[in-house]
């Protein structure tokens, strides 16, 4: 299964993923998957791991990550507590065409 399909499965089953992006381990909950300007992108809520944006603070509304799927490596789906922030329904500019999004 490719990364896109793995992440889509995680969204449909409300599962977490662990992946590497820019050589940093990311623990994330995928919320939206689709394309932006024709490239596959995902909107993730990062709850653990490392980030070039600074420390990950649990529950922060600043943990949203818009990541091109081609940039993710070693994607692993895992079960665990679902993480999000109060602003999960806010419109975003991360994805132009939505394929799938998590249900609340």
Number of domains: 1
- Major sheet summary line: 6 strands, antiparallel
Beta-sheet strand percentage?
over 45%
Structural class: mainly beta
DSSP E strands, number: 6
Radius of gyration: 12 Å
Distance between the termini: 26 Å
SSE arrangement, N to C: HEEEEEE
Provide mean pLDDT, rounded.
92
Count the DSSP helices: 1
Described by the principal axes of the CA atoms, the overall outline is globular
| Approximate helicity band | under 10%
The parts where pLDDT drops under 50 for at least 5 residues are none
Entry summary:
With 104 residues, the chain is mostly beta strands. The chain is built from one helix and six strands; from the N terminus they run H-E-E-E-E-E-E.
Q: Can you offer a commentary on this structure?
A:
By secondary structure, this protein is mainly beta. The chain has one domain. It has one helix at residues 3-12, and strands at residues 16-21, 24-36, 39-49, 64-68, 72-78, 97-101.
